[in-house]
Amino acid sequence: MKDKNRRRILVGILILIALVAYFHFFRQEPIQSQDVTTAAQFLQYFDQKGGKNITWSDFDHLPHETTKPVEGDPNGWSVEYRLKDGNGIYLDGPSMDQAPDTVKLSLVKTPNLTHKNEPKIQAKEIQTKEDVLRYVSQVGVDKVTWSDFDHLPHEEIGSGLYILYYSLKDGTGVILGGFGPEDPPQYIDLHLSPVEK
User: Fold this and answer.
1) Contact at 8 Å (CB) between 7 and 70?
2) Please, is 82 exposed, middle or buried when counting C-beta atoms within 10 Å of its C-beta (0-12, 13-18, 19+)?
3) Contacts (Cβ under 8 Å, ≥6 apart) of 31
4) Which pLDDT belongs to residue 5?
5) Confidence of residue 166 (pLDDT cuts 50, 70, 90)
6) Residue 78: is its pLDDT beyond 60?
7) Which pLDDT value is given to residue 20?
């Protein structure tokens, strides 16, 4: 009986230590919109909000440019926020009185992720928006190729430019755009809201 009680106490202590270690070392602290300055922080904030309730003013602390709607343009308002790591957040929608219809992260510069101890990800392992960010930060934005995403469901959505939309398992998507499949992609956008194809 004494051994059983000791075992229970020991198991309880081990569980408590595991919980403390998890909350201390692995759990990310919530991030406030005014603290977002990099692509990685933006994705953390987006996930924290459940992909919803992003507002036009969440990132007003960042340098930004607002484009007013042109008559007849169904996209309406557009705001480009420039992150300190050189990437951009784009919000589009018909009215600034309601939530934006489109939320996207444009990867212009190679993101510098702070989790250097993460294992390298292979292109064929990309399945989520976090995987895309990790992969691009590892290989460099200028080294991404069309074939890096060929394992994902995709379709051509461009007219004029060669634009492919790749569906990710987390419900988001990646758009690569360029002059054609024989040339490297000119841009990489993570679309965090549904894309009209």
Assistant:
1) no
2) middle
3) 41, 44, 45, 48
4) 78
5) very high
6) yes
7) 61
Q: Residue 192 and residue 195: Cα distance in Å, rounded?
A: 9
Cα 102-140-79 angle, rounded to 5 deg: 25
β-strands 154-156, 102-107 pairing: unpaired
Alpha carbons 188 and 132: distance in angstroms, whole number? 10
Round the average pLDDT of the chain to a whole number and report it. Answer: 84
Residue 181 has, within 13 A of its CA and on its CB side, a CA count of 7
- Find out whether 30 and 48 touch, Cβ atoms under 8 Å: yes
Q: Would you say 195 and 175 are in contact if contact means Cβ atoms under 8 Å apart?
A: yes
Of the candidates 67, 31, 56, the residue with the CA atom closest to the CA atom of residue 39: 31
pLDDT of 153 above 90 = yes
- The CB density around residue 8, as the number of other CB atoms within 10 Å, is 10
CB 136 within 8 A of CB 188: yes
Hey, what are 69's tokens? Answer: 């709607």
User: Distance between CA 78 and CA 66 in Å, rounded?
Assistant: 6
Around 28, how many Cα atoms within 13 Å sit in the side-chain half-sphere?
A: 12
